[in-house]
Amino acid sequence: MNSIDEWVDQLLHTNERAGVSRKSFLRAAAVGTMSTIAAACSTGKSTGKKGGPAPVSEAPTAGQPSSETVAASPAMKPQNTTNPEQPVKLEQWKAATERQSGPTPTPMPPDKRVGYAIVGLGHLALEELMPAFAQCKKSKVVALVSGNPEKMLKVARQYGISEKSCYSYATYDRLKDNPEVQVIYIVLPNSMHAEYTIRGAKAGKHILCEKPMANSAAECQAMIDACRKANRKLMVAYRIQYEPYNRLVRDMVRSNQFGKTKTIETVNVQNSDNPAHWRFKKKLAGGGALPDIGLYCLNTIRYLTGEEPTEVFAYQSSTPGDPRFKEVEEMVSWQMRFPSGIITNCLTHYGVHETRRYRVMAERGWIGLDPAFSYSGLKMDVAFAEKKAERRENVSLPDVNQFAAEIDHMSECVLTDRVPFTPGEEGLQDQRIMEAIYKSAKTGRPVKVPSAVKATRGRTASVATNKLDQFRGPLPKNE
Length: 479
Ligand code: NAD
What we know:
The protein is α/β, with parallel strands linked by helices.
C-alpha cells in the first residue's frame, strides 16, 4: 500500500460512515474536488457521487415523521457498551449537507494511560502542552520538574498533580523511584536537552525531547547512545509530522499528485524581543532564528519529500548594533539540493513580522500551506492547470491538536514497543544539516552534507542517504 492510500485510509477511517470510497477520493482529488472531499471527510457524510455534493434527499427534512428519523438513528442501534476504544454513538440531528460533529473521543481510562513528567514550566509547557494533555487519549501528566517551586506547586494544584511528584533540577534523578512516570518530556532551553535526556535515560525513563534536539551533532549522538544503552525510547517533538494538513501534503507529494515536485519554497519568520531571554544567548540557544524556527523549514521539507539534502548554500546576517543579535543570528536564507534534483529555498528571520508558509511546486500544480507551522488555523490551497483554466481550491480538514497527537504517538510507541516516527536520529540529521548551513554562511561556499554514519556493532558505517525516510520510524497508525 502506498502512502497516499494510507492517508486516505486514515481519512476514511473517520469516514467509514461517509461511503466515499478510496477510489472516488483519489479520482476526486486528481480532478480537483479536494475541498468537497475534505469537507465530506470532516463531516463524515457521503458526497453521494464521486466528488459531488451530497444529495439533499439524504438529509432528514423538517416535518418528516420523527419515527423515521429515530428508526435510522445510530443511537437506537445496539452499541458496544464495554469496549472503551469504540466511540459512543449519538443520535444524528444535523442535515447531511452540514458539517457534522463527532465522533466522540475514545480516551483510555486514566489508570491505563502513559504517565509523563514535564521538565521546564515555560511558555510551551504551560500555554500549549499542559492544556493539550486534556485532549490526549493515552497520556497523562503525573509529575513536574522546575527550578521555581512556587510556580510548580501552583501548576500542580491546577492540574491535580501530587506535591510528592514535584521535583527540582537537583532532585530530578529521583524520578527513577517514581513508577508512575514512564516518559520524561523535556521542555527546557536547547542547551539543557542533552543533559536532561541522558540523566532521564539513566533514571530508566523514555524521553520525549523538544526541538531542536540539542546544540551540536555530538550532543545528539550522546543522547541517542544513552537511550540505546538504557533500552529507552527517544523521540524528538516534531509536531508538524503528526499534523493532518502536512500529512496530506506529504502524501500528495509522495504520490506525485501534480506530477514531480521540482522545488519547495518555505518561510518561517517572526519578530522576537527581549535580548535577556535565553533565545538570544548562544550558549543556551545554540543559534538564533535557524535552530528555533528555521528548523521547521528544514525538517518539514525532509518530511514531505522523504529525501535527505546532499548540499546546502546559505547567507546569514544580523542588523549591526541590534542588542538581540550580539550572539545569535537574525536571519538565515539557504538553499538545499536533493538527490532527485529538487532544490529548495528557505528563509528564517527573527526581525520581521510573522509569516509561516510553504509552497510545493510540481510539474502540473502547486500545494501551499499558509500558515504551515502555526499551532492551529492551518490553511491549504492547491492550484493546477485544467485545459485553458487554472483551478484553485481550498482544502479544509478537521482541526487536530498537534501537541496531543504528537504526545499520544509517543505513548502508543511505549505501549506497543515501537520506534517513534521521529526518533533521535531524525533530530541528529537536522543538526548535521544546520551545521552545514552555518558553515556555508561562514565560508560563502556550498557545503556538502556529510553522509550519515551510524554505529553498527562497535564500528561506524555509512548510511545511504538516497533511501527515503532514512531516519524515521514506521508511519504513525491511525492514532
Ligand atoms: P521558555 O523560556 O518559555 O521556557 C523555558 C523554561 O526553562 C522556563 O520555565 C525556564 O524557567 C526554564 N529554565 C531552566 N533553566 C533555565 C536557564 N538556565 N535559562 C533559562 N530558562 C531556564 O521557553 P519555551 O518557549 O517554552 O521553549 C522551551 C523548549 O521548547 C525549547 O527547546 C524550544 O525550542 C521548544 N519549543 C518548541 C515549540 C514547538 O512548537 N514544538 C514551541 C516553542 C518552544
